[in-house]
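[agent] plan:
  1. take the single chain provided in the ticket
  2. run structure prediction with default settings
  3. attach structure tokens to the ticket
  4. add a short note for the reviewer (M.T.)
[agent] executing step 1
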Amino acid sequence: MTLEETFAFLPFPPGNLGLPIIGETLSFLGDSQFAVKRHQKYGSIFKTRLFGQPMLYIYEAEANRFVLTNEENYFVNSLPPSTEALLGSFSLATQTDTEHKSRRQILYQAFQPRALAAYFSTITDITQTYLERWVRKETLTWYPELQNYTFDLACKFLVGLDNASATPLRPLYETWGAGLFTFNTLRLPWTKFGRAWRSRQQILDQIEKIIRERQQQLNLGSDALGILLQARDEEGNSISLDELKSQILGLLFAGHGSLTSALASFCLLVAQHPEVLAKVRAEQKQFDTDEPLTPEQLKQMVYLDQVLKEVLRVIPPIGGGFRKAIKDCEFKGYRIPKGWSIIYQITLTHKDSQVYFEPEEFAPERFNPHRAEDKRKPFGYVPFGGGLRECIGKEFARLEMKVFAAMLVRGYDWELLPNQNLEMDIMPIPRPRDGLQVNIRRLSK
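[agent] step 2 finished; step 3 output follows
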């Protein structure tokens, strides 16, 4: 019996493909708990049909391992049509196979420890500027402020642009981002996607201007753009202008929105758990907080590391990922047919009681060396994905999160304002529904 014949005898995963063509699309659009309810009914894997496409929803460490370690073997990255179009074929997120591997090696040069170390003082300077700005305001809606903060950080790191949130690039990016996860991909002027498509071209034009200006300079700089302009692949080839523009836009997308979400979640969860904040502040007492923050100090903040890991477990900025089967395969005795889409779910994996004790609780201590709950099962903790497509900027994100958190807790206090909705809108990334309204003040010495 051939392998194909063997797969033909395997059962499909449980679930319901629904009506012809539309499947369960109407239920999906009308119920934010669509996947949760079906997992409760069918287990860690179920089938459905959405927007005419048969697909599987999966979670749990073992399922993540199977999908994420079989990149280019059984599965390829698959994004929604709107996302793929607006990122472009040159983006790392849309590249596949050897092209993806080659470009990832080049882009990684901008995220090596040496490059991040050179950026450390810039992060602290921008962070201090924003903290002082927020103290002067006293009362603010924090989420949009955090968006500006992370946009400035990302643009400075990527292309050396100062105060990017005050430039025309910021509203263009917002319009572009609003179209990334739309169902309608018609390029009509009045649609989100149509406006996003026009904004994309304007952003690329501005990035090209920055690139050309940089190329005229004797010193190409030590930011990501400077590194990538000098980078070469194994055959000695540099990145073309068109690809470089798209790669920078893709890196901006990857590093801006998800970091904003993570920082907002930190501010929210720590404010809701004052005992955690007290422990974080107690750890800071080992340092002279009148002196500037240093990388050496960050390495000693073990409890803060645990808090940040727990934030990413409880509210991961990216709730899951998309793949497509490129050949028939088998998982847990079920047939996964070629052409089906797969959604692996990070949020539900992080709430798995087989890995985490009382997973609904916010408990940073679960990450201390004695408990190390994230080590119980490989791929049970995947806030940055995994496998060949693990987030290339994860160390950059961790550094920014830790600098922000350390500088915030050692010098400032904040409280959540009453009568606001603190539930999280989860699409396209988690964010507090009312924008996280707070009072912020400087701590007295």
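[agent] step 4 note for reviewer: The chain has 17 helices and twelve strands.
[agent] ticket updated
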